[in-house]
Design goal:
The structure holds two protein chains of two kinds. By secondary structure, chain A is α/β, with parallel strands linked by helices. Chain A has a single domain, classed as 2-Layer Sandwich (Transcription Regulator spoIIAA), CATH 3.30.750. Chain A has four helices and five strands. In chain A, the strands form two sheets. A three-stranded parallel beta sheet of chain A has the order 1-3-5. In chain A, strands 2-4 form a two-stranded parallel ribbon. Chain B is α+β, with helices and mostly antiparallel strands. Chain B has five domains: 166 residues, Four Helix Bundle (Hemerythrin (Met), subunit A) (Up-down Bundle); 179 residues, no CATH class; 59 residues; 179 residues, Histidine kinase-like ATPase, C-terminal domain (Heat Shock Protein 90, 2-Layer Sandwich); 144 residues, SH3 type barrels. Helix content of chain B is 42%, strand content 19%. Chain B contains 29 helices and 23 strands. The radius of gyration of chain B is 33 Å and the shape is globular. Chain B starts with a helix and ends in a 6-residue tail after the last helix. Classes of the chains: A alpha/beta, B alpha+beta. Chains A and B meet through α1, β4, α2 and α3 of A and α10 and β2 of B.
Chain lengths: 96, 762
């Protein structure tokens, strides 16, 4: 059963440390990240998300970003990471 | 979130500086001194405020700054002429921006009406002249104007429609990694050939900490032309070890644009030192070639040196110009910086490394003023202590040439060096005070329906911070008076044969160890008969008193001279001038006025440069030890009896070379003794007052020169006429510091010298 983490609307400098803490608290569990409310995504929170993705992947536990808002997708494109969270890690990881 | 609060405080501090720059730049433009760099600096100031405000979610501020910025951008891009009417609007827009910043700092709401009105006005300019003017005819200007595009990310949602109208001529802001043609507007074909720049940048943690955002930089790059962005996240560690506020990501962006390297680097202007940056051009456009040669000799030598030392470091600068930059990311910043190829090599990429200069960016530090104050206090104690030591050494009979005495001399020089350096830390240019004045002038001029221009001189004049803080109030008063009561209405001015616009000059300068502030207007001057009549009516002077013009002018400083009702009638000045004078005097300063009817008035304010230390002559007067500030003393001498001449019933003058100066017995003026001593029995200190008039102070004896630490008499006791402050001497006793100007102008300053001078001249 995967847990869902709802991302806040503004993922800027202020949000980076809390985001890390929230995700760390869910480490070891399959994680569904809901990005539907995201209005702004900054470089730091992107880093945290990438780090989480890497951590979960190495833990062989699924992590998936779903319900991406337009702003979230736009930001990923801007950062050159448009496809960064596209891969469906759930299946991939399950098959490992 | 204390850290964030701290950053916010820093942001607002920077806002103050930026607002200052903004105003300075606009004023320079108004005076026709603005070159393109000035326009750029104005634009950058607004842009930076907007950027920082966005980071803190100060949406109202961002929205307003954005409209302002859009208009500035049109000016910067040459699509709008910086005509005087526009600059006046921009100046007022800057005032509103300052209000917005103030409101944001206090967490309150800015004046909505003023903001809405200003936004409407700015938008009228943007719409009226921006889009129907040259912008439409010359669309190639638009790629040069990255920031005209709204940064949705900065401003949240719901934007002003007028600003959006401009968007249509801009490239899409979104940095899709899609094909270039998708974003390049058709007119780009008419442009000079596009260059492909490979920008590699790695934000450091400090970039984010300063509320900058990598996304914004990427977006601005995207505004230059088409971009392909590649993210390198290999350095991102696991979640449990990551610093959530660290800089792990690196981007390499291929920007295809007609802009030169400068425009590309400009994107990173605000994050200089906070990121590793390299910009590599694939097809160097001729436009950038002239920039390079100046650095050629050094680079060539460095290149050779680098090649010899570390051949392996060079591959990323292969002449084939591999634009994808992962290699150069891996390379230490120093190599790309030095390995700059000569422009003569046609296929060589013009590599430059901005990241190699972070040290230069840290040119200033911010220090809590309290720490400096503490340091100054300590240095003050050190000076006192050093004086005590010197006194003890001499009391023990060491010869001046002895090791101890010489060591002490060196200590004294060191102490003085430390003191000067510490005081220099606290010294600030008066610019910070002057900067507020143009706005005051505009507001007062608007209120009084007068036209006024402010000319400022000597803004770089430095003075101790403690003095700076107290300068603002008197200057504000003097300036307000100059416009309100000094300048005539435009009609009156034209009738008097003057230009409709009045000029108010605000100047700061150093004069004889003090800072002098002058506020001069070219108005009608003081109506002396009127001022005199008012003083008589109010019982301040006897009706039959004979006053010189200067004395009449200075009547306005008398307490009780002015009331609001009277002031609005008279042509002179006087609103609260007695209050101003009192506050200035409390600082050991003086204020005076001179006026020429029909031509204007000048207020002169003089204050000590510092309220901490002074060099003084320690003298003996009637058994008391006093300190006379060295800055006032021209020379000291022992007069010959025949040089003393009686003057009038109770005065005396001293012949000094070819001139006569008035004799003033310090002891009499200060009430230490009833009868002055014979001048030839004492020592004469020839002093020069503020007005340049010399006087001869009579003291009993001189102890020598000493640097003394000023201890406020007002703060510890109360104000004493003729005494500026007190100090602690080497032996621990308190000595009074004489206020020379007050002494020589004091009513009792005329000693009854004649009676006691045994020999009259003859």
């Amino acid at each position: 059963m995967s847990h869902t983490l709802m991302l806040g609307p503004v993922l800027d400098l202020k949000a980076a440390a809390p985001l890390q803490a929230e995700m760390l608290a869910r480490r070891g569990q399959a994680l569904e990240i809901d990005a539907s409310a995201v209005q702004r995504l900054g470089g730091l929170c992107l880093t945290v998300l990438i780090s989480a993705q890497r951590t979960w992947s190495d833990d062989a536990i699924p992590l998936h970003v779903s319900n991406r808002s337009q702003a979230f997708d736009d930001a990923l494109s801007l950062f050159g990471a448009a496809t960064r969270f596209d891969e469906p890690p759930l299946d991939e990881v399950n098959s490992i | 979130m204390d850290e964030l609060e701290e950053i916010k405080v820093t942001f607002f501090q920077e806002c103050d500086e930026l607002l200052g720059d903004l105003e300075t730049g606009l004023l320079a433009m108004e005076n026709g001194e603005g070159d393109s760099e000035t326009v750029n600096s104005v634009f950058r100031a607004v842009h930076s405020i907007k950027g920082g405000a966005g980071a803190f979610g100060l949406d109202a501020l961002v929205r307003y700054a954005h409209v302002f910025e859009t208009l500035m951008d049109a000016v910067r891009g040459g699509r709008m002429a910086a005509e005087p009417a526009l600059i006046r609007v921009l100046l007022r827009a800057a005032d509103v921006l300052a209000d917005q910043v103030t409101a944001a700092r206090k967490g309150g709401e800015p004046n909505q009406e003023a903001t809405v009105a200003m936004v409407a006005e700015l938008e009228r300019w943007i719409a009226g002249k921006g889009s129907s003017g040259e912008a439409g005819a010359a669309p190639e200007a638009s790629p040069a104007a990255p920031s005209t595009v709204i940064d949705e990310d900065d401003v949240g949602f719901g934007f002003k429609p007028a600003a959006i109208a401009l968007i249509e001529i801009e490239p899409e802001p979104a940095a899709e990694t899609g094909p270039e043609g998708e974003q390049a507007p058709a007119p780009i074909e008419d442009l000079p050939p596009a260059t492909v720049w490979t920008v590699t940048f790695k934000p450091a943690a400090s970039l984010y900490a300063k509320a900058n955002e990598a996304g914004r930089l990427l977006r601005e790059l995207a505004h230059l032309g088409s971009v392909e962005t590649e993210l390198h996240d290999e350095a991102v560690p696991h979640l449990d070890v990551i610093d959530p506020e660290g800089g792990y990501l690196t981007w390499s962006v291929r920007v295809t644009t007609t802009e030169g390297e400068r425009a590309v680097r400009e994107v990173f202007d605000f994050v200089d030192g906070d990121c590793e940056l390299s910009v590599t051009g694939e097809e160097p456009a001729p436009a950038i070639a002239p920039e390079a040669p100046t650095e050629e000799p050094f680079d060539l030598a460095a290149l050779i040196a680098t090649a010899k030392a570390a051949p392996s470091a060079l591959p990323s600068h292969d002449p084939q110009g591999e634009p994808e930059a992962p290699k150069s990311i891996a390379a230490p910043p120093a190599e790309p910086a030095s390995a700059r190829p000569a422009p003569s090599a046609p296929t060589a990429p013009a590599a430059r490394q901005g990241g190699g200069e972070p040290a230069a960016a840290q040119a200033t530090i911010r220090v809590d003023p309290e720490r400096i104050d503490r340091l100054i206090d300590l240095v003050g104690e050190l000076v006192i202590n050093q004086a005590m030591l010197a006194q003890r050494v001499s009391a023990h009979g060491f010869a001046p040439s002895s090791d101890v005495a010489m060591g002490l001399d060196e200590l004294e020089q060191l102490t003085r060096g430390i003191q000067d350096s510490v005081m220099a830390i606290r010294a600030q240019p008066v610019k910070s005070v002057f900067q507020r004045m143009p706005r005051l002038l505009r507001e007062v001029a608007n209120q009084t329906r007068k036209q006024a221009r402010l000319v400022m001189e000597g803004e770089g004049t430095e003075v101790d911070k403690t003095v700076i803080e107290r300068l603002a109030e008197p200057i504000t008063h003097m300036l307000r008076n100059a416009i309100d009561h000094g300048l005539e209405s435009p009609d009156e001015r034209i009738a008097a044969g003057k230009p409709a616009e009045g000029t108010v000059r605000l100047a700061a300068l150093h004069r004889s160890g003090r800072i002098v502030i002058e506020v001069e207007d070219d108005g009608k001057g003081i109506n002396r008969p009127r001022v005199r009549q008012i003083a008589i009516d109010k019982g301040l002077i006897p009706a039959d008193s004979q006053l010189s013009d200067e004395e009449i002018d200075n009547l306005i400083f008398l307490p009780g001279f002015s009331t609001a009702g009277v002031i609005s009638d008279i042509s002179g000045r006087g609103v609260g001038m007695d209050v101003v004078r009192r506050s200035v005097q409390a600082l050991g300063g003086r204020i005076s006025i001179s006026s020429t009817p029909g031509a204007g008035s000048t207020f002169t304010l003089s204050l000590p440069l510092t309220l901490a230390v002074l060099d003084g002559m320690v003298v003996d007067v009637a058994g008391e030890t006093l300190v006379v500030p060295l800055t006032n003393i021209v020379e000291s001498l022992r007069p010959k009896p025949e040089d003393v001449h009686p003057l009038g019933p109770e005065g005396a003058v001293l012949a000094v070379r070819d001139s006569f100066v008035r004799l003033v017995d310090i002891g009499c003026v200060l009430g230490f003794r009833k009868q002055p001593i014979a001048p030839d029995k004492g020592v004469i200190l020839l002093v020069e007052g503020e007005d340049g008039v010399r006087s001869a102070l009579v003291a009993d004896g001189i102890h020598g020169q000493r640097q003394v630490v000023i201890k406020s008499l007002e703060a510890n006791y109360r104000q004493v006429e003729g005494i500026a402050a007190a100090t602690i001497l080497g032996d621990g006793r308190v000595a009074l510091i004489v206020d020379v100007d007050a002494l020589v102008t004091a009513p009792r300053a005329t000693p009854r010298a004649v009676e006691t001078i045994p020999l009259a001249a003859e």
